[in-house]
Amino acid sequence: MKTITFYSAVLFLFLVSQVSIGQENYQKKIEALKIEKQRIVEQEKNALKFEVRDINQRLENGDITENEARILKEEVAKQRALNIENRVAIIENRIALLERNKGDVLTLTESDTIYGDRMRLGLLIDGKPVFTFKPNRRKKEIKYDRRTYSDFVMAVGLNNALIEGQSLSDSPYKIGGSRFFEMGWQWRTRVFKNSNWLRFNYGFSFQFNGLKPDGNRIFIQEDGQTVLQEFEYDLDKSKFRMDNLVFPVHFEVGPSRLKKTERTLRYSIRDQFRLGFGGYGGFSLGTRQKLKYNRDGDNVKDKLKRDYNSSDLIYGVSGYMGIDGVLLYLKYDLNPIFKDADVKQNNISLGLRFDI
Fold this sequence. Notes:
By secondary structure, the protein is an alpha+beta fold. It is built from 2 helices and 17 strands.
């Protein structure tokens, strides 16, 4: 009991001393917050100057018209004015809190509270924790010249096959019904130090290439060959799909805009024309065939996952062109769809690609 009383007394004296210190120093804190208000105003004004300078540069380069420049200047001026209003209001609220409590802001926390990179537990006096647990977190520094960016990539469109000895118009696959879908991740790195006209793009993608045979036909394996054959029942649906994991590599060319401030240097390709050319390589994840038909009055759905003698290694050429993140996309497999086939078939896809 004596031990508990002793520690209680120590804790009481500690809290009293902390409250006293808080009351003596709160005027200094108020003065510091007033200086912070002035710093915020200057900071936002300087940022506005850099933005207006960038707009004037774009006007001189002919990227925008005088009317567009005027509208952009009004927008950034309005944004910076609102920034000042909001940020100053936060400081004024903190000053009012200190003045109302004369620096003695006592808060009892019931659960963990996270402030930025600091986790605080227990009793807070004047915003300062009595007990503090600070995880080992390193603040991420802003890099002055960032040369590599990353994007989520998605593509969708029409799929078909180029068959040896015949034109695409004679394809045994439905033009509109055969489609492809692709998604993945890419990194884009500026090749030259002081220019952004050439970029090197690389990453990985999952490809799903579908073929829909016309007529009432399905794929079967016969004597080491994969061929189309008439099905004994009336088909509602016949679809053949090839799933691949590939690693695309492209060189990309196109203009960009330089944005330079005291802290950062950035090349922006937003709203700019882009042209990419390259290829990809990878491997097959599997092939499957989906059938829907009616048999003796019953609706039947078959999902057949087999080898179908398809190529294990996938490689081809691809390219894209467009504005910003919306691109016309073409890819062509150099490997045949089916190994050791009497008639060679190569998958080809055309669609839209989105870099998000």
